Amino acid sequence: MMENEPISEQFAVTEIERYMAMPGQAHSYKVGELKIQELRKKYSQLLGASFNMPDFHDHLLKDGAMPLSILETKLDGEMQKK
Known about the structure:
Layout: H1 9-21, H2 23-47, H3 53-61, H4 68-79
Helix pairs in contact: 1-2
């Protein structure tokens, strides 16, 4: 880890211990990241020139954490009204 990132040994140990204690955390983070990228591409293509990244982020974050399927349904209703 330290060979690939400019971090201290203490930080690397902390990260490794976190991944050992919560192994699903890194996977869930990545799944969420990929879904958000997919949604951003979907609405960018759907809305074309009227797509606005700050508005997308506002809609994405305003209601807090939720399952990704519910997030997509919510965004489908909000983003397509534009």
